[in-house]
Amino acid sequence: MNSIDFLTGVNSIVQISKKLSLFLVLAMVAVFAAACGEAGPVGGPNVDLNATAATVNGKAITMEEVERAVKQQAQGQEGRLSPLELAGARLQVLQSLIEQEVMFQKAEKEQTLPSDDEVNAEYNKRMTATGLSREQWDAKMKEVGETEASAKLAIKKGLAIQKLTERITGKVVVPTDNEIEQFYNSNKAGFKNKRGAQLAAIVIDPRDLGEGDTTKNDIEAQAKAREIGARLLSGADFATVARENSEDPDTKMRGGDWRYFSEDEMKQTFPQGFAEAIMQLNGGDIVRQLIPFEGRYLILKVQRKLEKDEDRTLDSPGVRAEVSDYLTNARKQLLAASYQAMAMNEARVVNNLAQRVVENPNELSGARPAQPDAPANANANTNTAGNTVTNTSSNTNTAPVVNANAARVNANRPAANANANR
């Protein structure tokens, strides 16, 4: 298939086994009260961790939070970043922390905070899911500088934002029969299916796309793919992982759901042998290999497979429900994004880190630090399932955020494609 295996030692396309254990490293964002101060050079290696990177309605986000998140995203490779790249990474992480804090404060105001019992239950659930002993769990927590209190605070924020989003999107009503029929009649071509498969995708882009980008080269992209592959190998929900990690805003908002490909389209679009391999899988199977696609890499899941050509009408089983779900979800996504945009507009945000860049635009060097020589492909087989980093604070979505600079998968689908949700 001319593809790259995203898990060490795997060379075939088979369904991921959920029986394998995963060593889970908690990597979450904790909030600490800190006094205001100078953060130091925005792209320098040494910063005052107690300095205030930004404030949201007076609530401080410290450089300690920023640095921790940068290290998590860089997967231990932050020392290889140039001052210019490090400054960009810090600003990107800080923007995410600002958005999270804005939404958490909204959740506090709207009284959608979870109970202590809910937080404790979620914490224990995640700890149990790793298969680690309590001693191993505590060691992993210490390794990433976390405590039980900071971990539970991160979980509290995530659950609070999820509850807020569910309350806001709960205003969306079920489409009427007339709306469903109008949509179907305007998109009949989208319901004429040939033999093929509906695919979901997690997109990893090795290109440096600037703000909002999380992987800058092939090494980083493949390392991220191994991390994601290990999470999926452990039984993690594909849609959740896609929302957290995909570098394509369109599919990210839909939990990775991409589009339906006929078998002929797959043969024309993907590497040789791909279509044949996909048609041997079942609905729910995950493609075990990293698929190159238009300069990016895809981790794919077969949502469903159609063994023979099919013409579907409104009277076909499930079609009305699919259209209804599509319209409902699209409205919820738009409502959630709009609510977050309004919350950001209303918030009093002071971004000290960005201000320092504006005041000192020429202080950042683009030269990367000298690195010791390493054997070729030294990173090719690192970060396996036993060394996976995941962000537990982001397991619950806030409102979707669209990043115009991120790579987009070219779906080649109708403007309103009901099939995308099947």
Please tell me about this protein's structure.
- With 422 residues, this protein is of the alpha+beta class.
- The chain folds into 2 domains: 188 residues, Triger factor/SurA peptide-binding fold, CATH 1.10.4030; 114 residues, Chitinase A, domain 3.
- It contains 13 helices and 12 strands.
- The chain has a 5-stranded antiparallel beta sheet. Strands 4-3-11 form a 3-stranded antiparallel beta sheet. Strands 2-12 form a two-stranded parallel ribbon.
- Helix 1 packs across helix 2 and helix 6 crosses helix 12.
Q: Structural class, from helix and strand content?
A: alpha+beta
Instruction: Using the coordinates above, name the CATH class of the largest domain.
Output: Mainly Alpha
- At the third CATH level, what is the topology name of the largest domain? Triger factor/SurA peptide-binding fold
Radius of gyration: 22 Å
The total of beta strands comes to 12
Biggest sheet descriptor: 5 strands, antiparallel
Flag low-confidence runs: 1-40, 374-422
User: DSSP helix count?
Assistant: 13
CATH-defined superfamily of the largest domain? Porin chaperone SurA, peptide-binding domain
CATH level-two architecture of the largest domain: Orthogonal Bundle
Supply the number of structural domains. 2
List the secondary-structure elements in sequence, H or E.
EEEEHHHHHHEEHHHEHHEEEHEHE
Q: How much of the residues is beta strand, in percent?
A: 5-15%
Helix content estimate: 40-55%
How are strands sequenced across the largest beta sheet?
1-8-9-6-7
